[in-house]
Predict the structure.
Amino acid sequence: MKYIVCFFIGSLYTLSFSPYNIQILSVVSIVTFLMLLDLDNIKDAIIKSSLFAFGYFLIGTYWLQNVISSYSDANNFLNIFFLSIFIIYLSLYFVLPIIFACILKKKLGFDEGFILIILSVLITIFEIFRSLFFTGFSWFNFGQSGIATPFISFYPVIGVHGVTFLIFLISVVILNIIKNSNKKFFLSIVIFLFVTHISIFSKDWTIEGNEKINISIIQPNNENKLSYTKNEIKERMDDLYTITLGLNNIAPDIILWPEAVIPVPFNNINKNYYDSIRKKISNTSVLVAGSFFLDNNIYYNSIINISNPNNIYHKKHLVPFGEYLPFRNFLSRLYSYVNLSFQDITTGETPNNIKVGKFEAYASICYESIFSLSSLVKNSKSSFIINVSNDGWFGDSLAPYQHLDALRLRSIENQRYSIRAANSGISAVISPSGDLLKNIPFQKKGVINAEIIERNGYTPLSQHGYKILYLFMFLIFLYSAIFFNRKAFKI
């Protein structure tokens, strides 16, 4: 029965994410799991943690089956097989810290309260590892559930992985309160976190400028396909053309199109199509679009300032199996068997900054927004974040909401407005505190007209990366090591 409960509470955690946003369930889930966890029985701990993680990642990534079926001819069995292998892989980043904690407790005989502090540190570190290994998969981080909670003040300082640590740390505190153990130690932790929160609450790390920027975001809601007829491409181009010219009556500073919204490289239609748009839109408007870009037979996934095409950003963090096939030569037979074959996109090397009229913006494309560390704004002159995406591959799932929340976190971590154009949604304007100011629902067609304000400078996270988090975790570890081993330290 306890094993079934572990799977259930792992799944329960996912209700703390969008679109449900029952954030309290994140702590309830972890506290319940820790109550069921027996660190003295390594076999039992492995089974329980595996089931918890499998339930968590199954709900969080089941949308991948739609991506697999869209990109390949894999049958239902292979679809489920590939998805299961991937979920097991992700689960290892939760199970391995549990195993290490069990070994430490058995070999060194540490107090359980101290071991749970170590476990919180290990789970956080392994979550960071998950964002780095094999190009990284930083989707569905535990700390993402902290949006619109008091944790929001911590994101610009210690980032989403830091909030993961806080969620586990607070869960350990609650568990010890329930057990009525180690009260002095955990009371001091609560006081420390409360004082820290008060000192950084609603702090403006970045500076609001004087310039207001009028933007229009187009969401065409086109159907995703691997190939298109000439008529389908022309219909898509005509639709975007009409909507864009229809904005001349308000003449926004920026008009934003989604990722690769026209399935033809920019170079192939620039002279006739984009030239025509440039001539007919207001001379005060800048058109920015996601587009494929062809350079010496090399394809890039790019954001291009159509009004001044020398300003371009090529995507650097590509989606494995979506934009390129890893180990293409070694796995060629497998790819051929499931009919998985397409032109590889090349990794870009251009800086994330893109010039948009008189402003500089931080550019990111789709998948890149889920990575905290590589999405830190390192140029203080970058006034806001531009993100283009295409979430149509996700199908009717939770993924578009989760993906949008990732960009909300990037806005909070860098304290900047974000503007997002997604082909089928969810397009949005996001405030520096992560609020959705305006958005177009998933699988709806529309235009957002809004105003944002430039912001400059750095947050502690964008300036120092995760050094503050590592120091924070080390200090908590050191304090707990001294407290729980007072005899050894002769205190």
Remarks:
- Residues 34 and 175 are 8 Å apart (CA to CA).
- Residues 76-108 form the longest helix (33 residues).
- The mean pLDDT is 91.
